[in-house]
Design a protein that fits this description.
Layout (H helix, E strand, L loop, with lengths): L1 H25 L7 E7 L5 E4 H6 L3 E6 L5 E8 H8 L14 E7 L4 E5 L13 E6 L2 E2 L8 E3 L13 E8 L3
Parallel strand pairs: 1-10
Antiparallel strand pairs: 1-2, 3-4, 4-7, 5-6, 5-10, 7-8, 7-9
Amino acid sequence: MAVRKTMGLLGLMIAGAIAGIAAAQTAAPAADTVALVVKGAVKQELRLTAADLKAMPRAKATAKDHDGAAHEFEGVALQAVLAKAGAPQGGDLRGKNMTLVLVAEAGDGYHAAFSLAEMDADFAGEQVVVVDTVDGKALGADAGPLRLVVPGDKRQARWVKMLKGITVLKAGE
């Protein structure tokens, strides 16, 4: 009888642990957990938390998602994130700096590349946004916690879901 009670209690404990692990995997990251790393040809590597991103000036963009419907995305302008890391911008984007590219990396291994100049307001008219909300709600686990949204792109192939890193590199190296 005591063995049966112990086995039953052990089974409940294991089930609870599995449920806790599953919940932790789908829950939004804690405010102090690194959400985005910016590295490479920048003055300082950044390791931004969700709280860091929430404290930065907010940007909004309305664009059609894969479902064909227009949605309002909110987050931080990628240009602001790059400025915080010390990436060349504005008048510094000339000569050798025109060969700089950035690669956005998703948690599932997906990558998308951009020229650094097209992320700069002096070169491009459209703002690229590191978003954490869509239509006023946090991104779901299938898209977030962060997503790179490029409203000016006709196709969403460079919209990076589950964004975890941005690396600035010199093309050809």
